[in-house]
Specification:
61% helix; 99 residues; 0% strand
Length: 99
């Protein structure tokens, strides 16, 4: 018997990423899609539709590094992360579905 892989919708993705820990993981996933140069400069250089846009690169990188340092998102940081999760829900859905 062959198992079929579940495909998540963008709505399901946003619902799945509704806790501070999961929002932090989502931000880290987006950050991982930035090139090494983009990560080092906290900017977006390449228009490859991966990671953060130029508008969100600095804050997204900051939040990813904040979470990677062992901190938990809360307050304003959590609110900003959730806005990014919603904005990048299609990209996160592709990551989740491994498309």
């Amino acid at each position: 018997m062959e198992l079929t892989k579940r495909k998540y919708s963008t709505k399901a993705t946003v619902r799945l990423i509704s806790t501070p820990e999961l929002a932090g993981n989502a931000i880290r996933c987006l950050y991982a899609r930035q090139t090494e140069t983009e990560q080092n400069t906290k900017s977006t250089i390449f228009l490859n539709r991966m990671g953060f846009s130029a508008t969100d690169a600095y804050m997204g990188s900051y939040l990813a590094n904040y979470v990677s340092s062992g901190n938990t998102l809360s307050g304003d940081f959590l609110a900003r992360a959730m806005k990014l999760v919603y904005k990048y829900r299609k990209q996160l859905t592709k990551i989740l579905n491994q498309d």
